[in-house]
User: Fold this.
Amino acid sequence: MFERFEPAARQAFVDAREEASRAGQTKISSEHLLIGLLREPGPAADALTAAGIELGSLRAQLPRGAADADLNADDLASLGIDLDAVRRATDAAFGPGALDRVRLPGGRRLPFTDDAKRSLVGAVRQAHQLHHQTISSGHMLFGILDQDRNAALIVLADVGTDIAALRADVLRRIATAA
Assistant:
């Protein structure tokens, strides 16, 4: 299925897997795809950037999984450990978010959630409707935005995005790209 996806769109999947893992999640959700799309140059990143969406603000909205369960600030404080100070020192030494990066044992693959699967189906459907031979990051973003409700739409709403305007912009970008 992925042979029809443009290289940047395929890389967005890799980026989404990294984001899910970084957040301590066991599945790739539509919000991870959204961040993957923002990280790769193309119509999706262009539309998201034009809407004023920044990588840091999206990441801040992601739910946390195993990493946060293991690093409870109150529990650590009872031991005399200031988690915020540890995070600052770790970020300074190893880069932002280093303490939250989670590696899954054995490098196993992360499955897609149902909303991420629906996003992919929507991307393929949109490319087909526009008679495009390949699927771009723009088609993928449209697949996310064309749903009634999913995790990515909630994240976008939380950062104040005008979903209708973003949808119209990405549709314009992919329609004129052909």
Q: What stands out?
A: The longest helix spans residues 7-22. The mean pLDDT is 83. The radius of gyration is 17 Å.
